[in-house]
Design a protein that fits this description.
rod-shaped, 82% helix, 2 helices, mainly alpha, single chain, 104 residues
């Protein structure tokens, strides 16, 4: 029984040595396959992150345009107010000069 185990181990070792190149190529193919799967996964994650960042960028650009429009409209209002104060000597009415009309 012990001699059969020794012979079997010897046959397996001899078979491995004889087909070492094939086992090496098989190992390289497996490593290559797992590498392709891993890097494909990384590529998909990166693409997903890029899409999220592009969406955020678009939202920020829209907000920036809205803020510019608001700034221009506020600047226009203050320009009119300062022009009225300088050229026409207009001022804001105070609380005592306001008249409130109540409709029945």
């Amino acid at each position: 029984m012990a001699t059969k185990k020794v012979v079997l181990i010897h046959d397996i070792w001899h078979d491995i040595q004889r087909h070492l190149a094939i086992y090496g190529v098989l190992l390289l193919v497996l490593i290559s396959a797992f590498s392709v799967v891993y890097f494909t996964h990384l590529n998909r994650q990166t693409t997903s992150k890029i899409e999220v960042l592009l969406t955020e960028r678009d939202a920020l650009e829209i907000e920036w345009r809205n803020l510019l429009l608001e700034q221009n409209s506020l600047a226009e209002h203050s320009a009119i107010e300062s022009s009225a104060a300088k050229q026409l000597n207009m001022t804001r009415p105070d609380a005592s000069s306001e008249i409130i009309i109540i409709l029945p």
